[in-house]
Design a protein that fits this description.
Helix content is about 45%, strand content about 20%. The chain is an alpha/beta fold. The chain has one domain: Alpha-Beta Barrel (TIM Barrel). Helix 1 crosses helix 2 and helix 4 runs parallel beside helix 6.
């Protein structure tokens, strides 16, 4: 089966934890698994990790696992926001989660709410103190991170354009251009760049995406994304496998018109 060059990252959760669902997802070109540590217990995450690795081995595939740390967030009734009163980008919860993730040998650590290059270096130092050298993905979702984007790209191992929180930090109409600019900066430095959030959101409840979502995914690839990510669509949605299949179809169609180098996770 033909495989897209750009990678598909899928968040694993209650909707996709069963091995038969994971098998369908990995068989239909889910390349990377993301675990969101804003939710769930260590027991649940350990079970996800074991299932991902067992199914990947069965299918003779390598599926890297991203541990996505919460960072200083304030959980509210209608979502969450960055805790601007936090002294450090890494919370006590993050440090405990990080220790667990590294014990499980996750392949990447994604750090939420990166504001400057020093935040990336801080999480890298925390990883080294735990005896590992796991690559760090800098999540771009604050105005401050846009101000220091060149230095962040320089020190990070990969970058995630986290458009959900970014859309709370800057006017929504700026998101497409900011996305394009960050992708271009990452391409120049040969840093893998992931475009994330609400890519096929309607498929959380529906078996088909909207035309606007298809266009969004298409242009994320055309603009040079090395990977595109699904969140609640595959973590809690009704159609996790179908969403992967649709994402792969759109990506392959976009790549017929796109010939740039892909930086792999």
């Amino acid at each position: 089966m033909k495989h897209s060059r750009a990678q598909i990252v899928a968040t694993i959760g209650p909707a996709s934890k069963e091995k038969d669902i994971l098998k369908q997802m990995i068989s239909h070109q889910m390349d990377v698994a993301r675990l969101n540590f804003s939710w769930g217990t260590y027991e649940e995450h350990a079970a996800y990790i074991n299932s991902i690795r067992e199914v990947a081995e069965e299918l003779n595939k390598k599926v890297p696992i991203i541990q996505d740390l919460s960072g200083p967030r304030l959980q509210q009734k209608e979502g969450h926001n960055f805790d601007s009163s936090a002294d450090s980008i890494i919370t006590e919860k993050d440090l405990k989660d990080l220790e667990f993730g590294l014990e499980q040998s996750v392949d990447y650590v994604a750090m939420s709410y990166i504001g400057k290059a020093e935040d990336v270096l801080e999480i890298k130092n925390a990883i080294r103190k735990l005896g590992k050298n796991t690559p760090v993905i800098a999540k771009i979702e604050r105005q401050e991170s846009l101000t220091d984007i060149d230095r962040i790209v320089e020190v990070a191992d990969a970058v995630m354009i986290a458009r959900g929180d970014l859309g709370n930090a800057i006017p929504l109409e700026r998101i497409p251009w900011v996305e394009k600019e960050i992708i271009e900066k990452c391409k120049k430095k040969k840093r893998p760049v992931i475009t994330a959030t609400q890519m096929l959101l309607s498929m959380t409840e529906n078996p088909k995406p909207t035309r606007a979502e298809v266009t969004d995914v298409f242009f994320a690839i055309i603009n040079g994304s090395d990977a595109i990510m699904l969140s609640e669509e595959t973590a809690t949605g009704k159609y996790p496998a179908e969403t992967i299949i649709m994402m792969e179809k759109i990506t392959q169609e976009a790549e017929k018109h796109y010939k740039r180098e892909i930086n792999m996770l």
